[in-house]
Design goal:
Helix content of chain A: over 70%
Helix content of chain B: 25-40%
Order of helices and strands of chain A: HHHHHHHHHHHHHH
Distance between the termini of chain B: 50 Å
Distance between the termini of chain A: 29 Å
Radius of gyration of chain A: 23 Å
Strand order of the largest sheet of chain B: 6-7-8-3-9-10
Structural class of chain A: mainly alpha
CATH superfamily of the largest domain in chain B: P-loop containing nucleotide triphosphate hydrolases
Radius of gyration of chain B: 26 Å
CATH class of the largest domain in chain B: Alpha Beta
Largest sheet of chain B: 6 strands, mixed
Strand content of chain A: under 5%
Number of helices of chain B: 10
Shape of chain A: globular
Oligomer: heterodimer
CATH class of the largest domain in chain A: Mainly Alpha
CATH topology of the largest domain in chain B: Rossmann fold
Largest interface: A-B, 15 and 24 residues
CATH superfamily of the largest domain in chain A: MetI-like
Largest sheet of chain A: none
Number of strands of chain B: 23
CATH architecture of the largest domain in chain B: 3-Layer(aba) Sandwich
Shape of chain B: elongated
Number of helices of chain A: 14
Number of strands of chain A: 0
């Protein structure tokens, strides 16, 4: 332990209290959501606030959310769409980032500049032209429409480039001497040594597309194609307009996978952002 | 030396520039089969760039590289049948020692289908090829005393062990040439001496042509059959360690090799011989009178004497068996270093005025451009 790190609990108390207060503030809506998902509607809108339900109504709420709309189907759709998007993003971003970080070619800096510019454009801007393209191609209301616009992630290219920059050139030279092709180097040498960045990127990507409402709302009409966030919207619009308890149960089911995922990946995620931020 | 054909290396007219900076200015180099050649020079002299060009990791602007009579200038690194050991070892951090050693064999002998997990078992003959690879890895590991470390990751190894794994990875596929880029510079002094010997022994056993890049003259002198001294992108001299030390072709070579550094004194040629200030030196050289020259005297070419160059001792360095004497010459004002046996120097003290006699047959003369000028000690004056 370095000198100065050894602090008493008393010394840390103000800091911990402040952080704890912040955590409470952020967590409270989730806690309320979870509590409400366990309560009957009459209890949720009472003038007194209680955390724990008097009448345990979970089975009814969750049952309704699962039965009245195909909630499991929404979750499956979400998982599939997120997985497909992530696979394609990695497939394109990792080799591109390798070329930008480690290969020397004319126009590299210019192209990287364009990618940085791409970071500045919110994805809502090209939404309309993209919609027209998918409509003309007859691809609306399909997985293709949900996945294709996101297969190339400028952010991914940027993040991986920063991470790859910090890997020593000798490693790549050694791989070339050992007989690896450039693509072998990318997948056999670079990727296995860039896990923190990959985990960070995967978390960003999955969270963004799992929670995305804007694009699915534009291209999806049917229940069969709806992603979780859109599913909750469908559920609210059609079946459970006033049943807040059931709606919260649906919301819990939609957010739970993300929370679990983040908890699992937490350490590497932070490591990944830290390295991408410091190096290069 | 194995004497197998196809292992000589011929490098001709290599030029390389990064932007406007010329890194290599037409370097030519010729290695015999099984030779151990050191490429030595101060950092930034272009030796590593030259090594990378030979390896195929960098392309030359001009010139050619031939290995075993075959022009490989346009071949990629993997097809040149060369192995390289890197300064920071460049082991694959995510693979075990055994896997690291197997990579060059796996990439060369197994098809891409065979490298895919599960699918590999469907390819006929895979099991035999795989076990042949494992046997070779085992053999290399034993040769380098890595047998007990095969399952460790590079991060769990000491510097010396990593070094041996890097050597093993180069050795395992029996290439026609080894390139080593300052492989010992990350080791501590004690380990360095041991590994130096180990590499020499390994070279003797394997007989593979080796180019060894270093900025450490001790490594270059002790390990190599021949030494190539590079400076500012040019090859200044190529010869056996003894040749380049005793008979340097250039003042820069003389200054780079040898520790402590060679003593240099400004001299000029007069009609009657070479003069150091007013002193007439017993040296003969064919130069025009009045030319400004540099006289080089190795520290071991200076001896304590009753008469000779009058100097004042500035500093004495005790090295055990010998003493380094740093002294100042009054006219012309210059510093001299002499390497003296301890018995002779025991009574000396700082500030003493003594005389140094030079062994003129070992004196080196350089022109104003630094090029060596043939000289000889004149008998007459030596006797006088």
């Amino acid at each position: 332990m370095r000198p100065g790190e050894e602090r008493s609990l008393l010394h840390d108390l103000p800091r911990l209290a402040l952080l704890g207060l912040g955590a409470c503030f952020i967590l409270l809506p989730y806690v309320w959501m979870f509590a409400a998902s366990l309560k009957p509607g009459s209890e949720i809108f009472r003038d007194s606030l209680t955390l724990w339900p008097e009448r345990f109504y979970a089975i009814e709420n969750y049952g309704k959310a699962l039965s009245e709309v195909p909630m499991l189907r929404f979750l499956f759709n979400g998982a599939l769409v997120c997985a497909l998007i992530l696979v394609f993003q990695m497939l394109f971003a990792v080799p591109a980032a390798y070329a930008l970080a480690k290969l020397r070619w004319r126009g590299r800096e210019f192209l990287f500049g364009l990618i940085m510019l791409g970071l500045l454009i919110p994805y809502h801007v090209p939404a309309l032209p993209l919609y027209v393209v998918f409509a003309r191609a007859g691809l609306l209301d399909s997985f293709a429409a949900l996945v294709l616009p996101f297969t190339i992630s400028v952010f991914g290219i940027f993040l991986f480039r920063q991470a790859f920059k910090s890997l020593p050139d000798e490693l790549i030279h050694a791989a070339r001497m050992d007989g690896m092709s450039e693509l072998s180097i990318v997948w056999r040498v670079i990727m296995p040594n860039a896990w923190p960045a990959a985990t960070a990127f995967a978390t960003f990507s999955i969270v963004a597309h799992w929670n995305d409402l804007f694009w699915p709302l534009i291209v999806v009409q049917s229940h069969a194609m709806a992603t979780p966030a859109l599913g909750v919207l469908f559920f609210r619009a059609e079946e459970a307009g006033n049943d807040v308890g059931a709606l919260m149960a649906a919301a819990v089911m939609v957010t739970a996978p993300m929370i679990i995922l983040f908890l699992l990946a937490q350490r590497r995620f932070i490591q990944g952002i830290a390295t991408a931020g410091l190096k290069g | 030396m194995s004497g197998e054909a196809g292992r000589a290396i011929l490098i001709e007219g290599i030029e390389k520039a990064f932007g406007k900076t010329r890194i290599l200015k037409g370097v030519c180099l010729n290695l015999r089969e099984g030779e151990f050649l050191s490429l030595v020079g101060p950092s930034g002299c272009g030796k590593t760039t030259l090594l990378r060009i030979i390896a195929g990791l960098e392309s030359a602007d001009a010139g050619s590289v031939r290995i075993g009579g075959k022009d490989v200038t346009r071949l990629r690194a993997a097809d040149r049948d060369i192995a390289m050991v890197f300064q920071n070892y460049a082991l694959y951090p995510h693979l075990s020692v055994a896997q690291n050693l197997a990579v060059p064999l796996v990439m060369r002998r197994l098809s891409s289908l065979e490298r895919v997990p599960l699918l590999r078992h469907l390819v006929p003959g895979h099991a035999q090829r795989r076990s042949a690879i494992n046997a070779q890895v085992q053999q290399a590991a034993e040769m380098l005393r890595l047998g007990h470390l095969l399952h460790r990751r590079p991060a769990e190894l000491s510097g010396g062990q990593r070094q041996r794994v890097a050597l093993g990875r180069a050795l395992v596929r029996q290439p026609s040439a080894f390139l080593m880029d300052e492989p010992l510079s990350n080791l501590d002094a004690e380990l360095r001496a041991g590994t130096r010997r180990e590499i020499v022994e390994l070279h003797r056993r394997a007989g593979v042509t080796t180019i060894y890049v270093t900025h450490d003259q001790v490594e270059a002198m002790t390990m190599s059959d021949r030494v190539a001294v590079m400076m500012e992108g040019e090859l200044l001299q190529l010869g056996t360690p003894r040749e380049v030390y005793e008979n340097p072709a250039d003042l820069r070579v003389a200054g780079f090799l040898g520790s402590p550094r060679i003593n240099t004194l400004p001299v000029c040629s007069a009609p009657d011989g070479i003069r150091l200030g007013a002193l007439h030196l017993p040296l003969q050289a064919e130069v025009a009178p009045g030319a400004e020259l540099t006289l080089g005297l190795r520290p071991e070419a200076l001896h304590l004497a009753a008469e000779g160059l009058a100097v004042q001792i500035e500093h004495l360095e005790f090295l055990g068996a010998e003493v380094l004497l740093h002294a100042r010459l009054a006219a012309p004002d210059a510093r001299l270093t002499a390497r003296l046996p301890i018995a002779v120097a025991a009574q000396l003290q700082r500030g003493d005025a003594v005389h140094l006699r030079a062994d003129w047959s070992a004196a080196l003369l350089f022109g104003a451009d630094g090029a060596r000028i043939a000289s000889s000690a004149s008998e007459l004056c030596l006797n006088a």
